[in-house]
């Protein structure tokens, strides 16, 4: 049961990554050319006297159904949840933590007991004050959640020492534990107990700056500023999200002034940016698109073949064809400026088809071979597969494109029902979390390559048991060199997210989520 729970929890990482394909940019959609319509401020909720707006109109690319912070799987659901709930600490883009519901914490000498002091006077949206018992309830509840289990798996016990002090004891020393604490939204024990888990899926009670005001499934979601928020009431008082699953329709609504902020379809980005009508930003993400090779199937079990295939991939073409140029070529699976412990000072396989042919010959395939098929989904995954097919053909490796159903795609990949597949993932900002795609314990889980290397397993175990940051970096550098030399996966690119928003908005962005409390109208 424990293994199943962990599998389900970790599998959500890929579910979210796939969901993200539709939320940000969808190069596979039918994009419309920008017309002459300008983005005028929506005045439905403002006066005509020049007063500053206090509303915000947004859209969702998928239909949210669950707003329970411990069971919501979709990125769009978690984006709403981030406005309503808070964690003990907030993890910044550089991996450092900022106090949030906890003012500070201490760690015992043996690294096993974390003691958090809670901020006093923080109110849930039902008026109940945040207490240590709520944190205990939250952590115990997360242990029962498939999605959250991996975050609390190291926890042996949790205890409320008094109303504002919580002690969390780990089963083993786990250096990146605070990163995980930053992913646990705290809920109110009284509210959840009273309404029950089923009702809690669509009723909310957090400590965040916004509280749910309307939830019409398949139509819209709305939140309003919580007047008693502990950091002060939000500048933007009302936020509504319309469900608009087609990116072209969202763009038209944005240009008509019906929406204040969108992720721009990549094919329309240059026109939107050049128009000068909007604020525009090209946001970097920690999302990696890559090819998986099943190491249990010949000839992908041969390192020379995997290296040759990586050398055959033209990543510049991948960025251009797959994301209309809105991506950064990736030679490793983790971005050094976004993931602690990541480095590009290692073996890499830049585009070199002639060298790829030489490696194939060394592996015993001077004339190439038939690789079967590349399993993929529609949208930009399919375009990535098509470029890969062309690149591999150039070195003598022939393969077909197999378009799979989204409902079974992740399960097929987890179970090894493929030879080559396209995938996307965003694992977090600490390299310890990358054990999920490399460590043998995650075969039949997120180790989709079915890679088995005891040395890598041992190094990951050393990494999480080592507190000194430089020592941890050195350990992960060893891991990265090994997995790069083994060409476990073929990294393709790091996605970028092109966004546009109303000229009168001041906006802040984070890698993990967007917090509208930080936004304001000029």
Automatic annotation (TrEMBL):
One of its GO terms (cellular component) is periplasmic space. Keywords: Signal, Transport. Residues 98-432 form the Solute-binding protein family domain. Residues 1-19 form the signal peptide. GO terms for molecular function: peptide transmembrane transporter activity. Residues 35-51 have a biased composition (Low complexity). GO terms for biological process: peptide transport. Residues 25-51 are annotated as: Disordered. InterPro entries: Peptide/Ni-bd, SBP_5, SBP_5_dom. It holds the Pfam family SBP_bac_5. PROSITE patterns: PROKAR_LIPOPROTEIN (PS51257). Belongs to the bacterial solute-binding protein 5 family. PANTHER family: OLIGOPEPTIDE-BINDING PROTEIN APPA, PERIPLASMIC BINDING COMPONENT OF ABC TRANSPORTER. This is ABC transporter substrate-binding protein. It comes from Candidatus Ventrousia excrementavium.
